[in-house]
Structure formats: C-alpha cells, structure tokens
Design a protein that fits this description.
The chain contains 66 helices and 43 strands. The chain is an alpha+beta fold. The strands form twelve sheets. The chain has a six-stranded mixed beta sheet with strand order 14-13-18-17-16-15. Residues about 10-15, about 210-340, about 460-525, about 630-700, about 855-875, about 945-970, about 1675-1685 and about 1885-1900 have low confidence and may be disordered.
Length: about 1900
Amino acid sequence: MCCHWQGCVGVREEDVEFEEELYTAGNVVVWSQGSQTSTSSVYKAFTVDSPVQQALWCNFAVPQNKKEEEEVEKTVCIIQSSCVNVHTVTGKDFISPLPFQVSKVWATKFGLLLERKNAATDAQLSSPGEPLPTVFSMLHPLDEIAPVVCKPAGLFEGSRVQYVSDSTMKIVFSCCQPSIVVSYDTVQGIHSVWALRKVTHKECSTVLRCPAEPVSTPLGLMTQLRNASRLDSPSGSGAAGLYPGTGTGFPVGTCSPLHYSALHSHQSRIMTSSPGLHSRAHSPSISNMAALSRAHSPGMAAPSFTGMARFNTSLHSPSPKGHHGLLHSPNSTVNETMLMPEMEPIIPDLCMEQLWSETTAAGCHREMNSQASKVFLTSDFCENHYLCFLVESHQQLRCVKFIVSNDSSQLIFASVTAIPAKDAEPLQNIDAMLVLEACGSLVLYTGIMRVSKVFVPGLLLSTLSLTNHIPHFGAPVETVSTPAKAGSRHIQRLEEAVMPSPVLEQMGPNIKHHEASFLEDYTFHQATPYTCAMRDPVCNRVTLELSNGTMLRISVPEIATSELVRRCLQAICFILPKEAAMKVLVKWYNMYNAPGGPSAHAEWNLFVICFMTLMGYNTERLNWTKNLHFELPLSPVIAAKKARPSDGGSDEDWDYLLGSLYQHQMNFQPVCGPVNSSGYNNTLTTETEGLSSTSPSSPSLKLDSSAPLFPHIPALFYVLHLLYQELLLDELQRARASLLVCLLQQLARDLQLDEYVDLYWRDYPSLISSFAESCLIDQALIGQLQCPSFLKAEPPCVFSWLSSCLRGEEIPPFPYLLGICQRTRLLVLSYALYIIGDENATSTDGSKYLVKFSAGHKSCASEVQYRRQSSVKVMVSRESLAEQLVVWLTSEGFTLKDLESVPFGVALPIREAIHRCREQPCSDWSEEVCLLIGRQDLTRQAHKMTLAKNTASVGSGLSLEPPATTEADEEEDGMSDIIQEVTGLIWNQDLRVQEVRRLLQSSRPVRVSVIQLPEVSDHEYIEEKENKLLQLCQRTMALPVGRGLFTLFSYHPVPTEPLHVPKLNLTGRAPPRNAMVDLNSGNIDVPPNMTSWPSFHNGVAAGLKIAPASQVDSAWIAYNKPKSPELANEYAGFLMALGLNGHLTKLATLNIHDYLTKGHEMTSIGLLLGVSSAKLGTMDMSITRLLSIHIPALLPPTSTELDVPHNVQVAAVIGIGLVYQGTGHRHNAEVLLSEIGRPPGPEMEYCTDRESYSLAAGLALGMVCLGHGSNLIGMTDLNVPEQLYQYMVGGHRRAQAGANRERHKSPSYQIKEGDTINVDVTCPGATLALAMIYLKTNNRSIADWLKPPDTWFLLDFIKPEFLLLRTLARCIIMWDEILPNTEWVRSNIPQIMRGTFDPSEDINMETMAQAQDYITAGACMALGLRFAGSANSDAFDCLYEFARTFMKIMSFAGTAAVQTGFYNLQTGLSMILLAMSMVMSGTGNLKVLQLCRFFHKRTGGEMNYGFHMAHHMALGLLFLGGGRYTLSTSNSAIAALLCALYPHFPAHSTDNRYHLQALRHLVVLAAEPRLLVPVDVDSLKPCYALLEVTYKETKWYEETTVELMAPTMLPELHLLKRVKVKGPRYWELSIDLSKETQHLKSILSRDGVLYVKLRAGQLPYKDDPQGWKSLLASTINHHNSGVRAFKPETISAFTSDPALVSFAEFFCKASEGMRHREDTLALFSAMLYECVTQECPEMLPTYIAIEQTVAALRRGDLLQTFNLWQLRLVVELWDSRVLQGPTSRNDTLLTSEFLPVMKNMVDVALDGWLRANSSVLRSYMRGEALPKDAQSIMLACILVYRSIPCLRNTQTQLEGCSSLGDFLSRSSQLGIPLKDLLRLVPILLGSSSGPQPLPGFPLQAF
C-alpha cells in the first residue's frame, strides 16, 4: 500500500486560514482541514471501486452561456486505472472513463493534463513516421479527452506545430498562475519550460492536415492512437502491467507546492453552492449519460459514447479480441478505418509553447542530470520570480529567474543560479524558501540570496534542554500570529516543532507515532535525529521528515507581524534600489528573528534601531533610542514581559499597557515646567538648543557616512513621511502614526527640514516638544546624500491639501506612493471629483491631483502646473457628481467598513455624496454600490430571490385570517400553495380567495339534495338522485380547467417527493343522512370514457402549479409517472403542463421517445402540445421531426401510412403552429393552408371530427404567419388571403398542389362533397387564420371581407356562430379602432338589423335575433382581447352592461317573446363573461366573481359541460395565478387566447368534434407576471407602498401619472415610462422603463418582489393607515419643544438599527450615575433625534466626535490637534455650502444649529487663550523656540484651526503693521483665510504695549 498526501491552504468564511490535505490510501481519499487554532478534522472522504492512483484538486473553467466570462468550478479529482472521478465543491459528481492507462495527472489553469503510460507496444504499432500522442487534456469532466499539441522552439526544427508524442518527455510540474508546464527529457537529461494555452485555429488546422508522411494522414494517426489505447486500456493485454509502480512511484508530496500556489493562494476553498449555476451539468451526470444531448450542456459538445469509442478501435474493429490487433500491419489498420465514417480526428484543445530549456551541462558536470524531484515557483523579498527545480544527482537546486513581460502575455527567462541543496521547499507567503543542505542544516533563502540558518529547537540540541518546554505541549501548537500568547519570541516562533501527534497537529493519520509520552520520546532517543527531507509546504509552514521516521511540522517566522513595521518595510523597498532593499530586509529579518530575540512588544523599537543603524546613526548614544535598547517601550515599566505558557492574563499585562507610549500620550496632563518627570530623559538645558543645530551636544552624534543607507536618507525620509500622512487618514492606524512621528522628527531635524519638524509639532505638540537632540551630518558628506527632486521644503500635508480644496484655492498635485498610499489616492481623487467638480479626475490617471513616485523618480523634476480653481468650474450638478463618486469608490473596492475608519472631517463630503445618492438611486446599480449608499432594499434586490423561499412566515402577517379548516381538506384540494401573505394584502377586506377555493375544489363529494315526493318509489328515487348527481358531475368535471389557472405557477416542488395530484371526486352525499351516491351502481346509463378528459385536465391543473423557476430535472419527471394505468390520463396532462411552464425541455429525448412509443393517445397529445409550447417560436429541428411523424401531410408521399389517432394529429398540427410561431416559414404555411380544406379520404379516414382538424390547421397557419399581414416574404404565389377567403365563403375546390396530389386522387365513399368546398368545415379555421395573419395590421380591405352581410338573403346562408367569428376577426384586425363603449359594440351590427322593419318584408325574426346576439358576443370578445389584463374600467362597464342585458333576456328564455333560444343566449353570455374576466384578469373583481358564482350554482337543464368549463375558466382567469399573473396583449398572447377561448365549447366531456379540449390550457402562454409586491427589507414581509406609475403618451392619451397602492398589478410594461416607489414613508426608488425593461421584468418574474425600506420615524401603512402616529407628526404640533417631546424609549418603533436602540438605552436615559450630566443627556437625545429624523443615523458618531473635540478643547486637555483638523474640515465644508447659496444648504448633512454653536465655542475658547497669551503667538511668529508646556498645545491648536502657515522661512513680518490695509497686503501671500486673519488682527496689529488702534473692529468684521 502506498500513502500520499498533499497540503494546501484555504480561507473559511470566518477568515480563519486553515490547511487542507488530501490523503490517499488504497481505495480511499480523505480530505481534511485544520488550522493552528483548531485540530484537524475530516471534511470529506471518498471511497472508490479500485485503488486510487492519484488524488488532486483542480479548477475547471465552465464557460457561462451568453457571455465570454467563465465560472470556476472547484473540484477534487480522483484517478483510478480506468476512470477519473470528479467531485465538485458544489456537490456535482462526474465519472469520466479513461481510454488509456494514465501514468500521472496534472492540474492546470484549464483543466487536467493526462500523461499516457507508455506501453511497450508503442513501437510495434506506430508507423515509422509518427509516434502516438502522449499528453492529453480534459477541459471538463463532460468534455472529450483530446491530445495536446506543442510548438517547440529552435530554428532547425522549423518550429512546426505537432502532437506531443515524444515518449522520452516526462512532465514534472504544472502551474496555473502563470500557466506553465515543466518537462524533462529522459534521454538528454534536460528540463524545459512550456507555456500552456488554448490552441489557435491555425495551429489546429496545421496539426489536423499533418502532411508530413504519406501514411500519417490524421486518420491514420488517430487510428494508431486508438489501437494503442486499446492495448493498454484495462480490457487489453498485460501491457498495462509493465511498469507496476509508475503511477505511484514518487510521493505526491512533490507536487504540493503547485497545489498550494496554483489553487488557492488565499481564496476561499469553500464556496456556498448556488442553485442558479447553469453549468454543464444540468443532468445527473452518469445516470443518463446517453441522453446528454447538447441541450443539457449549454455551449458544450456532449461527451457522446462514440467519442470514447473513438479511442478504442476494439469497439469497431473486426479483429478478434484475443489477437489485440497486432496481426494487422499499420497500413491495413488505416485502410480498415477508412471504412468507418464516424472516426473523425479529435481536435486538440491546448497547446504547449516552449519558452526555455536548460543548456546542456558542460565541463565538470559530465554526468547527466537526473529528473527534477521537485519543482516550484518562489519569489524573493523584492518580487523577483524564480522557477526552482531540485536535481538530486547533483545535489543542487537550480533557480531560473523569470520576468513577466509588460503585457503579461509571455514570460522571459533569464539567468540560472545553482544552490547546493539536498532538498528544498518554498514558503509562499514570506517570499522565501527553506533549503536543506547536504550537511543537514536548514537554511532560509529569499530568491537566491541566503538569509540565515534556521534553528529548530529540539533537533540539534541536547535532550535536556527540551524538558523546559514541556508545558507547551498541552495546548494546540500556536504560531505567533496571535501576540496574546506571547512567549519569548524564538520559542514561540520556531517551537512549533513539537513532535506532532494526530491530535495536536495538522498532519493526518500517516505519522508513525510512538506510543510513549512526550518526555520518554525525547529523552531516550539514542542518537539525535536529523532532517533528511522536507514536504508539504503551506504558507510559512513546512513538514520535516526526520531520520528516525518521525515528522514534524515547523513554522518559519514571517518578516514582520506589526502592521506598522510591515508598511515601513514596504515603503523602504519601494524607493530603494533592489540590491539595497534586499540588504535591509535580510538584515532586519536576521535581527528580528534572532534566537532568543526580543518579545513581540518591541518589534517597532527593534525596527527603529535596525533602520537607524543602517542609516549610520549610533543608536546607543541618541537619547530616545538609547532607551529602546533596554526594551523600554518609552515607559516606566522596565522589565520585559516574560514568556508565560499560560494563556491567562496577569497584572503585568495591565502595567505594560499603562506604560505604553500611546497610553502615556493620552493621559499626559499638561504641566508647566520641563517634561523630565515623564520618562523622556531630556538632558537638554536650554530651550533653544534643540532648534538650532549650531551647538552640537557632543561630537559623538555624527552620522556614519559609510552605512549602507546613508546616501538614501532624504528619499527614505520622504517616503516615510508620505506613509505617515497615509496613516493619519485611517483611524485604526493613527496610534501607529504617533510611533512613526518620533522617527520622522529625528530625520527631519538632521536634514534641517524645519517646516517638517513644525508640521510634526503641530500634529503632536506634547510629544515633539520633548525631543530636542539632533545629529550632525558633516558638511563634506552632504554631497553624498542623494537629495531627490521631489523632496520640497514645504511638507506635503494631506489635511491642508483637502482643506484648500474645500476653500477652492489652487492646489499642487499631492504626492503618493503607488500601492502603499492607497487611501491617500482614494481620498484626494474623491475630493477632486466631488468638491472641485472635475469629472475626469477619476477617469484619467489623476495626474492633475496626484504625483506618482517610482523608484527611478530621483532625478526627473516634475514641473507642477498650477491652475486657478475658477477655470475649471463647469457647473456639473452635484447629483451626478455624487453618483459618479459613489460608483467610482465602489469600483475601487471601498466599503462602508472602510468609510468608518476615515476620520470624520475627511469623510463628511463622501457621506454627503452617499446621502444624496440614497435619495434617488439608479435602479441598475450593482449590489456593492447599493451597500455603500446604505440601501439594503436595493442590495437585496440585486440578489435573486423569490417569495416562495420564506414560506415560514406565510400567513403570519395577515389582518384577516382565513377560516380554519382541517389540515386534510387544505392539502387535498390542490390550492394550498397560493401565497397568502400577498393575497391577504391585495384583498384585505374580504375572503374572496377562500370563496374561489370553495368554488373550484373538485376533490370532495358534492351535495345531492333531491326531495322524495310521496308518489316516487324508492328505486325511482335512487335513480333520480343519480341523475341529479350526473348533472352535478358535468360541473365537477369542468372545474380543473379553472383550478389550473387559479393556482398557476404557485409551487416549488421538492425534488425528492412526487407531485400531489388531487383526485377528481365524482361521488355525492345525499342529506339528511349523508348517504353515498355513486354513478357506478348501474342504475343509470353513464357515458363510457366520461372521465378521461376531465382527469387529463386535472393532471394539467396539478402540473401548472409548478413555477417556471423551480428545479425540475428529467429524473423527477419520470419519477412522477404513476404505477396504475387508470392514472395515465392524469400523467398525460401533467406532461402538457410541464411543457407550458417550460420544464419539458429538460426531459431527455430517450424518455420522450419512450412515452410516444407506448401509443397511449392522451400521453401523445399532452407530450406533443407540451414540447411545442416549451419550444415556442424556436423552429427547433428535433421537435419538428417529432411532430411531422404524426402529420401525414408532412411525411413524404410514398411513406407508409401510419395509423395516428385523429386527436393526436390535431395536437401535432397545433404543435407545428407553436414551434414556428411568427416565423412565416413557407413550407409549413403551404402545407397547413391545404390542410384546412383536406377532403375526406376514400376509406373513411379523416371523416370523423373533421371540423377540429380544419380549425387546428387554420389556427396553426395563423400562428406561423402571426401578424405578418401582407408582408409574407416569398409567399405571394400561394395567395394565402384569397385561398382563405375561399375557404370562408365557399366555391370550387382548387386542384391540390404539390406532394399531396396522390393522396387525394379518389373521393370519399362515405361523404358526398362534390368539388365544392364544405364551408361548414373550413370556415372557422380560415376566419381565425385571416384574423391572426392580419392581427393589429388595421388592414381595411381584408377587414371588409369579414363584414356581416347586409341583405337578409345572404344572411340566411351564414351560420350565426360564424358571424361571431367574423366579427371577432374583423375587430382584431382593426385593432386600433376598438373603443371601450357600448356604441362601438353596437356599431358592429349591420344597418339592416338596426332600422325599423317593414312588416311587408319576410323577415325571419329568429335569424335576426340570433345574428344580433352572436355579433354582439363577437364584438365583446374582441373588446376583451384588446383590453386583456388592463383592468380598464370603461371596457369593464361596457361588458358588464351587455352581460346584464343578456341575463335579463335569459330570465324570459323559453317564452315566445324570446327568439334566440337558451343555447345561443348562454353561448353569448359565456363569451361576454370570458371577455370580462380577460379584462379584469388577475384582479379578482367582485362583480365578475358574483356572476361566476351565479353560473356555478346553475346546474340543471341545458347547462352542459362546456358552459361550466367556460364559466370556471373565467373564474380562473379572474384570479390568475392567485392574483400574481395577468394577461398580455402581445401577438403571441392573442394567438394563444384565440386557441384557448374558441367560442364553441364541448357539449359533453368526450366531445372534441369542433375543438380539441386540450387546447383550452394554452391560455397559460398568454399569462405574464405583473404583480409588484413591496417587501420590507428588514422584516422580509410583504407590505403596502405607494407607487407612482407614469404612462408614455399614445394617440389616445397624454403622458399621465397615476398613484397606485402596491401590491398591485402593473399595466403592460411597454406602455409605461417609469415606475417609482413614492415617499414619504419608504425610501424612493425609481425604475426607468424608457431605457430598458429587463430589470423590472426580472423583478416581476421573481414573484414581483420589490424590496422597500421604511424611512426612520415612519410606520408601515398597515399599522398606521393615516400617518398620524409617525415620529415627525408628533413634532410638527409643537415644534419649539421638539427635542423635549422626544422620548428615547420611543426610538425602537422608528428604527431597526440595534446600535441606535442601544445608544438611546445607555446614553439618552437618565440613570443613577448620570444625574449631574442632564445637559449631556439632552444633547445626546437631540443628536439622536436629529439623526433619525434626517435619515442619517451614520452621522451620529460624527456629531459625538465634534462634541467631544469641543469639550476637550474647552477643558484644555487636547493632546493632539488631529480632531481639531477634522473640525476645521467640517466647518470649511459647511462654509463652502453656505457660500453656494440656500439651495445647496439644504443638501448638507449637518443641517441643524448644532454646528454654528460648536464653531462658536471653539472660537471663544481659542480667542480667550490668545488674549491671555498673545506673546506666545508672537514669539512663534518671530521664529523663536517653541514653547514647552501646556501653552505648546494650545498654540498648536490655534495654528491648525486658524490655518496659519509656518512663518519661519518667510520674509513677511506681520508685526508692527501701521494699518489694517498694510496688514492685509502683507499677509496676502500667506494664504490665511480672511475670517481667520481678522481673529489675529487685535494681537498682531500695533505693538503689544501700545493701545489697540481699532478696538471694536474685529468683532463687527466677523
């Protein structure tokens, strides 16, 4: 048995990094995961049938349909000898058979690479010229395995593209990023590197032509391949056994670096599976492999079995198996294959292009290289990349440096370096590798530079020393990434090397663990074990294999754990030349990780010492760094923390914190006098000494000019200064900035950059005043300093840049470091875009505002172009700028979390922009943008989600609970899936939905109440009851058609359970004793097959519940097939329903064939109609073939007569119409045209039910040419309209054209039609065909053909029914003339019937009455179609009036006064009812419901099955899809409605004579979801919201806007311009439909869920219909006391944000301890109130920060001026908005009086101090020494807040000005804002002693 494993890294959702391992043994593969904090656990285990040869992770790219992008599918591949098992992370499994024996498999960027095992038979089989391919690729488990081609480099080769067929070439490594493969030539001993890429067309064709040898035609080549593959395929000879161990020869561990680097450097390995992933695996992968047609794998060819067979000639070749085909000569094989047409060559997918190969070793290395046992990629600290391979024969590691070219398309390989090594492994995330030297010592290299030896405690130590660390062993081994457990550094860092046991470590069960305690284990080993190999590197961890067979996992320390140190190192490397940078990093690494090195606290101190030493400082002598040497973290606590094994804290931790520098600054109360007491050890005596570097303290403070970094000091200082500015922009990093400033001020002093020192002093006045030493740099050496051009005397300060920006001054570009100062770049460009208003700031490179630095930037001086601000002011509206800003920030990856860490002043403009966008967002923004602007409703919308998911809450939020019914009843009526939350909102006043359920349920017995009269005998009474039941059953059998429409698309089936079909119950119960009444008792005659069609309809109704979005697959459809044959009709209906909702396309062709061959008539009808509906208008060829078999006219004339049942033919003809809908396909149109008038055949065929066939042909013809009108391309010779007219009015039959002449030679023997057209048969089809062809074309000439005749004589020749059809046809052709009023309806009745009648004429009153009624019904029908789904009130009123008229007439029916007759009236009435419910479709209108209920109750007399069907269809349409769907009026929908609502209903349940019953269900094709349901994004419950819907203008009405209360039906989308959620209760959201309707369509199709978000302070309409309870309402009444009236307790009603609720709880309520701070409480309450009412809760922290800053300033205990800077930015933004006028003032976030008050307090505090201490300011302005006490802080505050520049180096003397004008002119160059200058006037104007010249001036000026 052989075990392998390989490790890799992944990141779980919780962002814990962990290791994963694949461990194989025998037939099992175990995938386990574990991290340093948790033990290893098994994640998955796979067991396969035969021994595992190899297991690996691989990512397959799955092309997404439509777009170019690819989805990555992460998988585990398990290789067995005969197949590959692929398991995806999302849970799909594939098995791909292998056509040959595989020696090794490699994961690449594109998929798997397979190396074929070279069988000995290769030589015998291959023709002399062309050996067989050896390397193959598999791009996806469902794709075919294809050979790989290669393009070798080299001139003499002529670099011809060829198959990889060199059997001496072995692959030793593959990698995804970059996509390369390393191979080894076993003959020459040379390694080569190849780039792996997709093959180009040209290369493909070159290889397939392959004209080199006569024999090696591609066919020949492939055949040999297939022969060979047969030989070593598992079924073949013993060739496979020749190399028994190749597959498992060397451990898989060697490829683990690849798996680490290539697969998942840091991305999460665990993906949540998304159900919507349309990958190539639509079908269960193996169960029906044969049925995988292209349809199942979008965009991918299917892996047909022939493809596999193409490798394996044994399937074709006639040679007997035993001979293995060796008897043929190669040529005979070729000839043989020529006869097999399906053997086309396999097209290659991938190409390997040679990039580099070793030069042959010369000189001393005569002997050949062995094959590299390890290959990996590594990089060094400075990002040079190396490809390393370990050649064991020479015991050396060869490192090839490579560069990625600029366009990153190719790799350029440079020098090779050899490092002596016995073994090596890369350490990915610390850019280093660990090398095991021959002597057994471990050395760390970065690239090819040696860093240091690695010391693993316990390996080469004496055994005793180990016993000290025993306490470590108890806990899971820790790495240093958590300083909480800080031991002394080296133990903690390197001592992970405890002997690993399966419990403690990440290693799997494969470690031979001695069953002894740790102590024995270490103490009694005789010899010290040494390392003999390394394996499984992941990140910075690697496993050592020891000589005694144990393994231990060690972790090599990182380069830095402190974020600050890491960023400083990054900046240093950025600016230094690579060699120098390398030196710094190596020096630092050694110092930092020295054995017994310092503890983690001192990392920064250590860095400062290291860095300054490298620059030439003598850190031992410089005072503040001297302390660092003693590990004094500038604190009174001297002792460093000792290593402590326990995890618990101690008092020392607390002392340590108290003593830290940061804490010190925070708590340091300014005291007068020197600061010696605070531990800074100032030795300076005079104040001035620190500032002037003239008198050096001692000669020893000189810099050593020979230090490596000495020349680079200015550049290094500058990048660290920029890093410091970057840290200031991040609240989380600011504490670190105060550490960095100590280092910076020292460098600034020594470089004599006074302005920089001044800047640092202003930022940290108390801190900087305590430093005063400076070191000298010899004047002679100053020349050696490379002073870069970018180091200006004026320090770049990001806050003052932003502030100038706000003030609208001219600004130079701000410098930034690429990749290091990201936040600086982001904020500078944001301000440029939003404040300056330059739209191009972010689109171009931003060079106007930013200067980029690169390492080579030292010499080139950039001329800075200043430009006046005013020249740019193009007034772009703020709104669009805000939108641009928000979208740009998102594209940069900026999130709300990042915004929280931006200081409050800097963030204010961004918050303002976000606030603006929140008001009116675009509907098409991405999810991330919506998250940033805080619109969860939109974010949620961007997620695709339907209502049905949250069924848990269904019915809970209803105001009207449905009446309680027992569970059993609920379930079985098949209508329990209507989403009640929604229907309860739409119809909240009554229980109409329950009523509809009651009317449509057909699963319970009906009540048969017949009173037994005295003279009726018992036997007769029973018969009477049964006859009554038979009448009631006519109704029951018609119900399912309506039920299907009512429950349309309301259910998502569970794939593991069959669909429940409610049974059709035809029994009754007779009161009073509830006795059963049954039709099967034999007392009365029941028609045969009475229930077959009703049960078909019942099946359709059940199937229509399934929503189109649900997950349905082929297996589930077959799984629903019933066992008992009597349910076959139901299943047939179920299949048709699946077609109507689009799921039947998933049914495998095999199953379709299976169903059709059974010959069950109903199943065929359902299947053909279903498949055709699913493929509506696609002209799909396979479906066309399927349908043609069932239509004799579409078969060749000579074909055998198939006996197809008549109804199946009708279904097939309609199917052709559906599949070719709207295509105008000529051949089909021609056939269908002739089929309308198909004469009866001689032998009684085509004689029964001819009407329905002719009608079907007419409908199908109409659908094929739908709406084409007279533009029928290429059909003019068919004369379609004329032919149809003839069918309509009669005349001589034309000779049959074309193919069908033979069929109709002899006339029928049964029916004598002669040579005229039988109009009774052909008229309906022809009329509707004309109507559909000219639908909506307004073609008057055609419409006139359809006018009813205008003489009594002609009128007698037309059936009244046909008048209905003609009127309907004429009206829908003249679509635009239909008007919703009674006058228009009556205008359709011919003039002769409307006038007064001359009694002398012989008028048949009956004819006239019937004609009138039918014409009226036809016009009403047209009106219904024109306004279908529109709920147009005029149309409804008009139709309702006609319905009432008809009902009045009907109440007199049977009397002599009524001529029409009951049947005709009832037909007309049913059509008008259907028209009404079409108009009101989906609205559940009560009046229509009442009519339907009235007809439901009438069961006796002439109310037959057909009328019931019509009435219940009307009911179903009225509540279509439970109120979520309505009808469309598109051409396609009108065609479907004409088919479904054909005005001749069946007389009884088996009647299909005039119209096939199954077509009634085609109504579904006209349904579309248009219900918009607002769902509250916080509670996820449907709610009410006000919508504003704007109609586009049309010729009937102007552009109109209406308000609707959603949930509501929207009008048809093409009529709309915009849909908008209106305030004030919900956030506004506008969907613009003039641009595109796709967004709204997708919302509607996902249950119409539109997420809305309540504004703060508002209540939903359900709780507060009038809006009187809202938070704002209470304040409007008493505005002045608004704040008092606000009670913190009430907040919870108005916001769902837990943070705000807690804030109210803890900070706004008076508790015991807070009594004395009532004012603070009031202030906090006011802030909270302001935030909530202004809809900006995110401003609360800003308000609090401003208040805290002001309070601290007034108390005088500000230690840093940082917060004052922020306040200044806030004030400047406010001022700039005020200047822009009142309009923009409303936009600002800080609207209240809060800011002016705070501003005033600051002014008062600062002015007060200034009056008292004016001398301090004067002395500062004269350039004297900085003050050293509390004054220092206040002075800094004033300078910052009043934006006074550093005046040291300016010649301007502000003092002693004679007049104000003089003062102003002198100060004009300084750029101090005027209002700030005026504050200084009283102090600076005139001498301090003299009287003030203008006493009252400053105040009035302000």
